[in-house]
Amino acid sequence: MQSRVFRDGSRREDSRLSDTDLGTMTAAQLSGLFHRKDASPLEATRAALSRIDRFNDAVNAYVHVDAEGAERAAHASAVRWGKGEPLSPIDGVPVSMKDLTEVAGMPAREGSLLSSQEPRDTDAPPAARLREAGAVILGKTNTPEHGWKGVTDNRVFGATRNPWDTALTPGGSSGGAGVAAALNMGVLHQGGDSGGSIRIPASFTGTFGFKPTFGWTPQWPPAKAPSLSHIGPMTRTVEDAALMLNAIGRYDHRDPYATRGQPEDWGAGLSDGISDLRIAYSPDLGCAEVDPQIAARVREAAEALAELGAEIVEVSPRIDHPIEPFQRIWFTASCDFYEGLSSSDRQKLDPGLVDNARRAETWRSADFFRALTKRAALTQALEEFNQDYHLLMTPTVPISPFEVEHDVPPGSGMTDWTEWSPFTYPFNLSQQPAASIPCGFTSRGLPVGFQLAGGKFDDLRVLRASHAYLAAHPPRFPAIPDPSETAR
Questions:
Q1: What one-character DSSP code corresponds to residue 10?
Q2: pLDDT digits (tens, 9 = 90+) for 175-227
Q3: Mind giving me the DSSP string for 187-214?
Q4: pLDDT digits (tens, 9 = 90+) for 325-366
Q5: How much is the average pLDDT of 365-393?
Q6: Which residues sit opposite 314 in a β-bridge?
Q7: Does 203 participate in catalysis according to the annotation?
Q8: Most-buried pick from 53, 152, 206, 386 (CB within 10 A)?
Q9: How far, in Å, are 172, 212, 215, 247, 398 from residue 218 at the CA level?
Q10: Is 173 in the active site?
Q11: How far apart are CA 155 and CA 257, in angstroms?
């Protein structure tokens, strides 16, 4: 039986949840249960759907649920497991897809009033690979319009709320997936990350989020800024992320940016420890102001990695912070989209998206090419940095979650999400792998995450270090979404 802690410090048992509830299991645990015939995919799917029924009204993580389709897929999976012929270890495991991703038979509203409610007729690469693995697709999770910002709200479905405090944002743009992972509304969750959209909500919800090396997890149709966009998992454990990557981390010819060379097994060496790693720890990347409580939790995580055997070297990388070149590329993508619309359709867009597009209208082509030059210089500098260090450690986000339905912290004087997430988008520009790992809580009971980034194609090293930390320091998750639920 699990219990809840209330603001007055009292603890009371919650009869709706138990440690044996299939809805609390990881993908690895469910796979073992299915193999031993101690549980069936149909039971696991119904447990996931039950959690969606119980929790989604409070957090608005899912914007489309296909219960009938999920039960059909789970029944087919149960038959396969019964015959001893599963398609993969995640056959029958409940999964969600971000609403920017096309899934046959489901709409893809992309958070936009301009989108159609009609179901799509094609599976995008991550959906196709998960179906081939036998996973059960539950539905679609919420995102801001076309994933343009670091929080999750839109004019179609409204705002997604943080399960640790539903008055706050879970971040974005994969905010629905992060909340679904925190509450285990399904087990494996697909996110997308063009500037931090996996790592920001992973940090704000206390879950694990991983952005693989660019091109190793294909997507189609292309994102609005395709050279920045990475598809990746959002889960409760690194082991589950590796299981998901064994499905989605495969070449697909439809993605013109897709590359080959992915690990045969994304979980290879996951438990080999980190005594051979030299990790550079930068508290601020030489440019960011970090909340003192977040800085303290991340420093403690660095000390914990040292205790696990890694060599930790505190550094200040000599790089020019890339907010200007990132905005040039990001805002230009918004401008290109905006200029292709009629005046009436422009009125239906998120005002912040319009502001970004209008900022780019006056830029010259030479400005854009200078941004590309600075991007190349940043990538070269980070890759050079990784010749001396195996990984670079920073906070994931320098601030705690703030009030929902705001793009920036109220009263901060900021105007854009790129100003409060300086640690994430450098690694989209460089196309390197990066993860957010939960590492405790603030005094308000809000999650904190630290980031590990590696050189290109060093994905397994990032996963191994993340797993070592979480194996020694297991994260905690919210029992139910409630404004009064606080971590103690």
A1: -
A2: 999 999 999 999 999 999 999 999 999 999 999 999 999 999 999 999 999 99
A3: SEEEEEESSSTTHHHHHHHT-EEEEPST
A4: 999 999 999 999 999 999 999 999 999 999 999 999 999 999
A5: 96
A6: 281
A7: no
A8: 152
A9: 20, 10, 6, 11, 30
A10: yes
A11: 31
Catalytic residue among 31, 40, 174, 197: 197
Given 31, 40, 96, 98, which residue is catalytic?
Answer: 98
Q: How many angstroms separate the Cα of 441 from the Cα of each of 205, 247, 423, 445?
A: 10, 32, 19, 5
> Quick one: pLDDT at residue 483?
67
| Contact status, residue 395 vs residue 423, Cβ threshold 8 Å | yes
For residue 119, the 8-state DSSP code is P
Residue type, 241: A
Residue 428 has pLDDT above 50, yes or no: yes
Measured between alpha carbons, how far is 215 from 430 in angstroms, rounded to an integer? 12
| 3 is an active site residue | no
pLDDT tens-digit map of 32-57 = 999 999 999 999 999 999 999 999 99
Place of tokens 């299915």: 34
Rg (C-alpha) for the chain, rounded Å, is 21
How far apart, in whole angstroms, are the C-alpha atoms of residue 207 and residue 252?
28
Q: What pLDDT was estimated at residue 20?
A: 53
- Mean pLDDT score across all residues of the chain: 94
**Does residue 420 surpass a pLDDT of 70?**
yes
Q: Where are the alpha helices (DSSP H) in 83-222?
A: 125-132, 175-182, 199-205
405: Cβ contacts below 8 Å, ≥ 6 apart: 153, 159, 169
Residue tagged 């980031």 (tokens): 451
Contact by Cβ (8 Å): 170, 144: no
Gap between the Cα atoms of 323 and 10, Å rounded: 45
